[in-house]
Amino acid sequence: MNIKNLIYALTALSFTVVIGGAIYEHLAVVPIWTAAPPRSLAMFQGEYGLHPELFWKPIHPVTLVLFVVTLILSWKSARRRNVLISLVGYVLLLAVTAIYFVPELIAITRTAYANTIDATLTERAATWEILSLVRLAILIGLSLTLFLGLTKTSDPRNQPKTSDIVS
């Protein structure tokens, strides 16, 4: 296996880990905290509260670095388009995450515990969840684009010529 294929595979693996984390959270964590806020937010609070940022803060920079290295290594190959589309989409989603998802999540989950249910907070949590599922679907689409790049050669000398495609 050459280094280009190895780095590409590591990028795809890292991106898959991001998606796996998001799927896990949507199956195991989000349904609990969105169920009845602020009562259901106890899982984030106190000495033993959940701290998902311990996963998210390191995985995104690692994935971005791998993407950039993969793009550089794939620049003259047929894989460039797959990597570029996936990287640009991922960066845009990270920007949206930083602008909306993280601040809204922090605002909701840091609401003081109460043994009641707040209808407004529940509605905000439901909106966050729906939009986050849309974000996850886009990430999955981007990962499929990235994985399809693995079917293309990493060697720029083996690229089909325009004349080969037309005939």
Fold and architecture overview:
The protein has 167 residues and is mainly α. It has five helices and no strands. Helix 2 runs antiparallel to helix 3 and helix 3 runs antiparallel to helix 4. It starts with a helix and ends with a helix. The longest helix has 31 residues. It has one domain. 71% of the residues lie in helices and 0% in strands.
Q: What attributes characterize this protein structure?
A:
single chain; 167 residues; mainly alpha; 5 helices; elongated
The number of strands is 0
What coarse outline follows from CA principal-axis ratios?
Answer: elongated
Order of helices and strands: HHHHH
Assembly state: single chain
Concise synopsis of the structure shown:
With 167 residues, the chain is mainly α. The chain has one domain (3-154). It is built from 5 helices and no strands.
